[in-house]
Amino acid sequence: MYSLTEGIEDLKADRPRIRIGRTKISNIFIDDEKISKNHCEIILERVKKSEQKENNQPPIAWLTDKSTNGVWVNGKLIGNNKKIKLSHCDEITLVEPKISQKIAPKYRFFFQYANMPSPLSEIKEIAKSYKIFGLANEGGYGQVYLGRNIHNKELITVQAFENKIFYDQKELEHETNKKKFLQSINKLKEIQSENLVRIHSVITTEDHLYIIREYLNLDDLSSVIQKREKFPEEEARSIFEQIIQIIDFLHENEIVHRNIRPEILLIKIIDSKIKVVLSNRGIDNLIPNNLSSYTIAQRTSTRAPETLSPEFNINKPCDLWSAGVILYMLLSGIRVFQEPRKDGLTLYNQIEKAVFDFSPDPFSSITIAAKNLIRRLLHILQEYRPTTKEVLNHPWMANRSELIKYECEDLDEYIY
Asked: What secondary structure letter does DSSP report for 117?
């Protein structure tokens, strides 16, 4: 059992029964009121020699959920007093956060059978420095694994890309596309910021490219919005200011992200204050400024209109559009572009024409200044969107000490 939670040690499963819970007799003790006294049990069932399909077949591990707040295996809830057979490299999560005002911690483990190889162990450059626990997720461009640096015990993620993704539709420009991608990654690796997940190294093989980066066991902004539904303007402003500062940092280093979205913005709580960190889960979308795209963003709802055109004329303003989409969500708890709509407009058409509104519920109590900033960010024409510096100087952002209900005439210079 490999722990991904700070303060909880790994456990070698060398006994027939493993208890995880809130009592001192638990094999894995978690001092948290959300954890049941006997939260779950893992029982190792030896396979009879007569039934073994191979010599020294490992025992079968059964996990039983005995909790009030739940146990998840690979993202699926087990259910109280129900059990499931564990497979090699299964991910076990305790106490998924409920919809509330608080951000609950997640307790995550990876289960591995001792005599079975770890993922990516055949890659010497990875195996000599890292122990890989298992597959975290699989996206359109490859797999993301979780693991640990065997030298300093730091948790890491490994994103694996197949080299074939660098071919365009005509299977041309393979090396050029790969070179552009590596230039972006190396640029991001060089720049340091407390609001960016660190990239440790890049490993290339004949068939794959592996990016090894820092792992943070944090909720993303999308899940936080689902729990909170919406944020008061003062709190939304604090979060949004950090998002703009992240975008500004990237743009200062001539990097256009082009797919910033709530799912890749991680939320850390420090002294009861929210800190935003940009994950590298969307790393395949990072390109140097003014370079044409060679991959298509998979998430549509935060994409700018220009990313939908065949020419793909992408530049810094596309990240400001994404910021506007996120600000709308922070203040309302809902997505600005979504289906279905009464007028029948598809998601694509809504974005292409910048069709959105400020419904009385939940925008009746939102200040004019906030809505004005959203309108500016979601302008259909790139050249009319504000820069990061202009956003930070907007009246809604510039008056952080208290909320001011601006009259329309106070915003004349900001209205187009």
From this structure: P
